[in-house]
Design a protein that fits this description.
This protein is about 0% helix and about 65% strand. It is an all-beta fold. A hairpin with a 4-residue loop joins strand 6 and strand 7.
Length: about 80
């Protein structure tokens, strides 16, 4: 993937649905800098990882036929594509 920084994370803007049925958060679309909106085809898995007192909400998603991972940082409320 292009535009990755040294941490292999790229900041993205995400449109997500919160508080829907049994899934508290579901990413619907995301946008990389300078690109058009990309639709999430399917939510494959979710997990929460605690790193240094910060909860990272991790979403494995399918975009078309490509698998990607989105992370939501609960401290600074940012989304990243990893």
């Amino acid at each position: 993937m292009k535009n990755f920084n040294k941490n292999n994370k790229e900041r993205v803007e995400v449109m997500a649905l919160f508080g829907y049925e049994m899934t508290p958060c579901q990413p619907l679309t995301f946008r990389r800098r300078g690109e058009s909106e990309i639709e999430v085809t399917e939510l494959l898995a979710t997990q929460i990882r605690f790193v240094g007192g910060v909860a990272l909400h991790i979403f494995d998603v399918l975009v078309g036929k490509e698998q990607m991972r989105l992370e939501f940082n609960s401290r600074d409320l940012s989304w990243s594509l990893t």
